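Hi,

Apologies if this is the wrong queue. I'm a grad student, and the batch job for Outer membrane lipoprotein from Dokdonella fugitiva produced an output file that my downstream script rejects. I'm not sure whether the problem is my script or the file. Here is the sequence I used:
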Amino acid sequence: MPCPSFRLLSWILLLAALAGCATPVFKDGPATSPTIAEVAAAPERYHDGEVVWGGKIVAVENLADTTEVQLVAYPLARGQRPDTRAPSQGRFVLVLPGFVEPMDYPAGRWLSLRGRIAGSELRTIDRSEVVHPRVARADVHLWPRDFPDDRGHWSFGVGVGVGIR
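Support response: The file is valid. Your script probably expects a header line. Output copied below for reference.
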């Protein structure tokens, strides 16, 4: 029979491991999503396919019946959070129905979405023409404004000192 302290330690380690797991925002999304580059290269192949993508808002444009949110795409990390340390993967456009308050979707804000590919369009960035996949019928998760700095900070030190942050 195992020692009671061993059993307690096992439970503590198990709970600590589970606490470190990030719950995905969209639990019923696709197992894998095509990359921005794959969709940009063959948008007709992925038309109406479901994706879970994330990125950083670049611009918001309200049109007559819809709003277009242009994003720089980043790969998703744990919990479907955009991986801010990874290189960008291109750009895409999120199409939302109706009017969206631009202050709710400011440039620089991070989001994750689950939606359907709705074609692509050619947009000019500086002097380059870039294919932007379009995503519609999306569920959107806006990350907190202090993202990605809302994860805990770890530090270790010995001695006397003053920490400035």
